[in-house]
Design goal:
This protein has about 190 residues and is mainly alpha-helical. About 55% of the residues lie in helices and about 10% in strands. Helix 3 runs antiparallel to helix 4, helix 3 (about 50-70) crosses helix 6 (about 105-120) and helix 7 runs antiparallel to helix 8 (about 135-145).
Length: about 190
């Protein structure tokens, strides 16, 4: 009667009761267990749909939390994917997926968009990657990939990197094309004049 995949997607799994299904153990909150045993419908909380700027801000907050809580990058990316799935009204997400841009790169674009819209500044390569990547080897590999402009975001001409003598000084900027994709009609407010 109840689809565990749907319940998991709605993020209703919490501590209290455990269910084992298809090789996976789930913890289910007491309200869901009680509804199942009473054969009553499960009441899901309605999530407020976010606008694009609130979405970018939420992603940025998750990135900051990952760094402060010392959690894993993998957990951060799963939370961001859940946030994407909970906001199908945001066209940008689907556009980036159709361009075959992986969740790691989408996360960086979301953070860069937030830096531009909220802070009105380019994104610091080192600071941003320190916040996203928990493992030093992974972080250094990504920093090198971006410093050498070998990432797909450079190949798709969505970002540029400032020339800097030291990686601490290197900054990432969205191109006008990226701003058109990520900010829509508001891109003209941030576009660089040629």
């Amino acid at each position: 009667m109840y689809d565990l995949g749907l319940i998991a997607k709605q993020e209703r799994f919490q501590s209290n009761q455990s269910i084992y299904s298809n090789g996976t153990t789930y913890s289910v909150c007491r309200n869901v267990v009680n509804a199942i045993f009473a054969n009553q419908p499960i009441e899901f909380e309605k999530h407020e749909l976010l606008d694009i700027y609130t979405f970018y801000d939420e992603v940025s907050s998750l990135i900051g939390q990952r760094d402060m809580l010392m959690s894993k990058t993998r957990e951060l990316l799963k939370k961001i994917e859940s946030l994407e799935n909970a906001n199908p009204q945001i066209d940008v997400i689907e556009k980036l997926k159709k361009m075959n841009i992986a969740i790691e790169e989408r996360t960086i674009l979301y953070e860069m968009s937030n830096d531009l819209a909220v802070c009105r500044k380019p994104t610091s390569l080192l600071k941003t990657f320190d916040e996203i990547y928990d493992h030093p080897r992974q972080r250094m590999s990504k920093i090198q990939e971006f410093s050498n402009k070998e990432n797909i975001l450079f190949h798709l001409e969505l970002i540029t990197a400032t020339e800097a003598r030291f990686v601490n000084d290197q900054q990432l900027e969205l191109t006008n094309e990226a701003m058109n994709i990520l900010l829509g009609d508001d891109a003209v407010l941030f576009s660089q004049k040629k």
